[in-house]
């Protein structure tokens, strides 16, 4: 079936980023939009919706507030409408539970009929100046073609499993499916190994630590030389700013790569309080010098996983500074090995419209478009290499969405801050002065 309507924008994927775009474009009557998602409804990282975990970003990272605090789809309005605003006030924390964020996003979707679920995008073609988006309804299997002037790709990232990890072994799981397997892990895992130095690995380790029975031995291994915290000091947080996007974008491809390689602690570490909670929990276990039944080893690279023995998995590590190889056994291996962006297969028939850089990655324009005309195909969360790590940050989503909406409209509908940081990332203006004065 072909839907004869022509949309100005079709967003593919309704994760938080495209949901924000749907919410911010909602009050603009001249934008006819449609947002499609293959899932049956919004459910934010359900395999990691561990009790009591919170967002890592302040609640103002909701769908709309940083672009338009008066928009009725704000988190504060959600709290007001659901009778929770006073409780939120008394709680006095900027960091809401992830469960509440999930519920808030579902509430936003209830008010946006342009978000359609159970609709998977299979293919896209370009015909007579329009993109034809072929979809299949995941339940009825009905196929529909939607036509649009522009696409916004918001398909997110996928769990990353290193290529040397054996496939199809149910004893090896990624943190993204942790909660689906938690009961089994707790009841059957005598030895559980967790790999990774990021937030997900730490959350899973802490949850198992609190819920395991006494015999279950936990091992936690990380490649970096320590379990380091995410950097939240305020002058570093200034890198989460429009100024920094401009600065980063204007560097060469090779300089950007170097910058990204140095920004591990800023985006990839563990929440500072969580590290301390883990330590304090272990401290309690160790009262009277009791054995906490744990192995925690940094500086360890996992090189090989041998799953040929049905009774246990053998993990082969190297301690990188000592250059000493060592082995560990586990009943279950949990991989906190992060997420990666994969280009969606549905782009195959419009590849010729997409710009590439020297590495074959999307050559993303400053306005977040990737097409040769510079305003037809936009990406969300696929531009770390051009717009920096803050592309992954919920706190900057409203900025990016404002930028894209303004670009599509050809006018500044949403005010975009240009310089918010006290520090200068770019010194061009000083270099132009005859004498640089402090
Ligand atoms: C556990 C966890 C916690 C996080 N917490 C924070 C945090 O506190 N603060 C922060 O700033 N960032 C956080 N992040 C990082 C980031 O904000 C999230 O990953 C966020 O979900 C990214 O949103 P997204 O819209 O890019 O993608 P996703 O949420 O992954 O959504 C993509 C959607 O695209 C759909 N899709 C894919 N292909 C198709 C197709 N062919 N057709 C139709 N639909 C399709 C999928 O079904 C999915 O619903 C967290 C990440 C994780 C994993």
UniProtKB/TrEMBL annotation:
SUPFAM superfamilies: FAD/NAD(P)-binding domain. Pathway: Siderophore biosynthesis. Gene3D superfamilies: FAD/NAD(P)-binding domain. Its cofactor is FAD. InterPro entries: FAD/NAD-bd_sf, Lys/Orn_oxygenase. GO terms for molecular function: oxidoreductase activity. Belongs to the lysine N(6)-hydroxylase/L-ornithine N(5)-oxygenase family. This is Lysine N6-hydroxylase. It comes from Chryseobacterium rhizoplanae. The lineage of its organism: Bacteria, Pseudomonadati, Bacteroidota, Flavobacteriia, Flavobacteriales.
């Amino acid at each position: 079936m072909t839907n004869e309507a022509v949309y100005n924008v079709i967003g593919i994927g309704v994760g938080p980023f495209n949901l924000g775009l749907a919410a911010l474009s909602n009050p603009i009557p001249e934008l006819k939009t449609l947002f499609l998602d293959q899932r049956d409804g919004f459910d934010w990282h359900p395999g990691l919706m561990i009790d009591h975990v919170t967002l890592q970003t302040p609640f103002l990272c909701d769908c709309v507030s940083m672009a338009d605090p008066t928009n009725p789809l704000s988190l504060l309005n959600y709290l007001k409408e659901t009778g929770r605003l006073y409780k939120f006030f008394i709680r006095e924390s900027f960091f809401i539970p992830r469960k509440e964020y999930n519920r808030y996003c579902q509430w936003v979707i209830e008010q946006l009929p342009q978000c359609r679920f159970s609709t998977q995008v299979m293919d896209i073609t370009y015909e007579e100046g329009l993109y034809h988006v072929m979809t299949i309804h995941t339940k009825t299997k009905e196929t529909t073609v939607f036509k649009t002037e522009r696409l916004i790709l918001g398909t997110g990232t996928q769990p990353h499993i290193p290529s040397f990890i054996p496939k199809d072994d149910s004893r090896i799981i990624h943190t993204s499916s942790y909660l689906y397997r938690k009961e089994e892990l707790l009841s059957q895992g005598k030895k559980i190994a967790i790999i990774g130095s990021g937030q997900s690995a730490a959350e899973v380790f802490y949850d198992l630590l609190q819920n395991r029975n006494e015999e279950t031995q936990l091992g936690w291994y990380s490649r970096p030389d320590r379990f380091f915290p995410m950097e939240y000091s305020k002058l570093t947080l200034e890198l989460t700013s429009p100024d920094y996007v401009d600065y980063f974008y204007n560097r060469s491809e090779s300089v950007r790569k170097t910058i990204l390689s140095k920004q591990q602690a800023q985006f990839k570490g563990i929440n500072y309080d969580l590290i301390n909670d883990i330590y304090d929990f272990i401290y309690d276990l160790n009262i009277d010098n009791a054995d906490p039944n744990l192995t925690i080893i940094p500086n360890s690279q996992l090189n090989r996983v041998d799953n040929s023995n049905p009774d246990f998995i053998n993990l082969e590590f190297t301690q990188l500074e000592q250059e000493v190889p060592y082995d560990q056994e586990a009943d279950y291996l949990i991989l906190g090995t992060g997420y990666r962006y994969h280009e969606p297969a549905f782009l195959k028939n419009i590849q010729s419209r997409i710009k590439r850089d020297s590495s074959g990655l999307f050559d993303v324009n400053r306005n977040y478009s990737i097409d040769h005309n510079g305003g037809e195909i936009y990406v969300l969360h696929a531009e770390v290499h051009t717009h920096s790590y803050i592309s992954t940050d919920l706190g900057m989503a409203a900025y990016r969405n404002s930028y894209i909406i303004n670009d599509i409209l050809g006018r500044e509908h949403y005010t975009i801050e240009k310089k918010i940081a006290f520090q200068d990332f770019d010194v061009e203006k000083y270099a132009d002065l005859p004498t640089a004065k402090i």
